[in-house]
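G., before I forget:
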Amino acid sequence: MSDVVIRAEGLGKKYLIGRRQAHRTVLRDVVTRAFKGVASSAFDILRGRQRMVDDATEEFWALKDVDFEIKRGDVVGIIGRNGAGKSTLLKVLSRITEPSQGRVEIRGRVASLLEVGTGFHPELTGRENIFLNGAILGMSRLEIRQKFDEIVAFAEVEQFLDTPVKRYSSGMYVRLAFAVAAHLEPEILVVDEVLAVGDMEFQKKCLGKMHDVAGKGRTVLFVSHNMGAVRQLCERGILMSRGNLTADADISTVIDAYQQQYVKASDFSLRCGSMRFESFTTGVDQDNGRIKMSIAFSLSQSEIVEDFCLLLYSTNGVRLAIADLSRTLALPTQLGPGDYEIECSFGPLMLVDGVYDIGLYLKTGSFTDSILGCAQVSWKPVLHEGVSYRYPSQHRGYFETEVKGTITPRNRD
Amino acid sequence: MSSGPRQFPESPSSLSTAAQPDNAEAGDGALRLTILEAGRAERNYYRDLYHYRELFAILAWRDVAVRYKQTVIGFLWAILRPFITMVVFTVIFSKVAKLPGEGSAPYAIMVYAGMLPWFLFSSVLSEASSSLVSNANLISKVYFPRLLVPAASAAVAMVDFFVSLVILVIVMLWYGFMPDWRILVLPAFIALAVLASLGPALWITALNVKYRDFRFIIPFIVQFGLYVSPVGFSSSVVPSQWRLLYSLNPVVGVIDGFRWCLLRGESQLYLPGFLLSLGVVVFFLWFGIRYFRRTEKTFADIV
């Protein structure tokens, strides 16, 4: 038996995108369209004109010609920008959606963790949800029973086991959900960006648990924008870009290649509902401590923009700042279809030198989400007055701070 | 068949004693080769279904556990609905419209014997058809045979069915009407009722994922079906030249079967019509499963 557990050949996934972005199909539309289609084609044929191809939909290849092999025990980080096809790849591998092209061979049981707490039912108690969620993730009842105590201890929710999870705090909820997932022991584990939730302490614990899983010779596929976590966890990396696999090598090479991509901002493309971002260029004005952004996007239809914020993250995923463009730039709430460009800057920031990620929080009529890893900025060391540079940057946190004060002898009375 | 709500999670202390190495499961999993390809039919689909039986049990248990949460009278709903309908139908069809019953059997029992399978049919249809949409979060995040979701919601309807079966026993005792040997065939007709509802239910469930119109069509079918099916009256009321055509409604065969079992043969089974109903049931079952399986893989993309 070969050592290859996943082999993908010419893998492709196509979606049909409606021009009118109808959220779900209504039978009436299908009937009228079919009716119109029949009528117009009959008309075309009568007039002796060439038949027009239906233009209501366009093809969009979320994955195209992807080939790779993954061996038993590999821990592979899949990185790439938003819309590069990472999540689609995971969905295909975990059999949620079927590929449109090519084939994949998988040896062994795959458990996918694309979301924390899938299937949790708010009315059921913590205990009941452990069984429910475990079964949904593919554990047998026996397996859950064996690990039950361990799961409860990991989640630190002993006193609340018989409380419906709708009364849990969001932290408890996430801990319980992750605890179940962390005790999965499939041959192949597929994990999407799920560590972006929970506090730092718990994130570390989860990373540690995943490290253990990987250490036991299991195969792990891990998607994340958190380069720190990817570097720490994976030996090998796969870089995706616009549905193609652009690099497959050891993890540091791939992360370097990924960070190189930011330099060429021109091929950036991100689709958020009816909004399509074409470029996301960053610059740093370090003299004034500001980050400059230039964002180009287009709208396929008129859209209500409720929130449009830039997010500043550290490379290990801690949010440092939020810059609200919708309020401070007074963006009109209703934007008509067309192309737009935003030029802005935010600050003052006194960042410690290093690389920072820029994300986006967007809430429109058709889309609401935070998107990590839209761009990166690298902050060079600057000398501020009143700041001590005695300690190396990895010990200085995120912000430089200016210290003022005096020291005087004190008299004891 | 579902055995009613189960107390699932036992206390942790009793769990550890039950722990045994799960060799068969692990060995089977390690060698399992899955091939994913466009349009490829799942080769061991039914083995997969069997493999996921625990998930099925848990989903069914969840649906049962959640169904009567935050209601005051809880399970009584499963009893009250058919009971009140029985009273109303008996009054309207027997006393007001003066329709004939089945021989010497009390009219109320005849109505109830028809209503049991009808409620089973209509609740499987309406519960199943919305099940995939209301479990959209599961479907877009994990793989399992999608058939489990509507099947689990059908299991909930089964639980309600067995609860209301108890009422039948009480009504029979009240009238002092005892069934004969024919009642032994009842399980076969219960199975037939489930199959009869599962076929159309699966078809509509799959359609409902894409065309939400069925959310509006289902209540209409259920309401309309109550009148075109022999629930409040005996199917012998239908003129004999129309009887065969009438049997195209699969529920007719099921209801007639139920009455034949429960009414001591006071109700005659019209054989050609019954066989036709049976044929329609089999056709819908085949068609429903086929359609469901053909569209199953696209559910995650369109739900």
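Strands of chain B lie at 33-37. The longest helix of chain B spans residues 107-134.

More on Monday.
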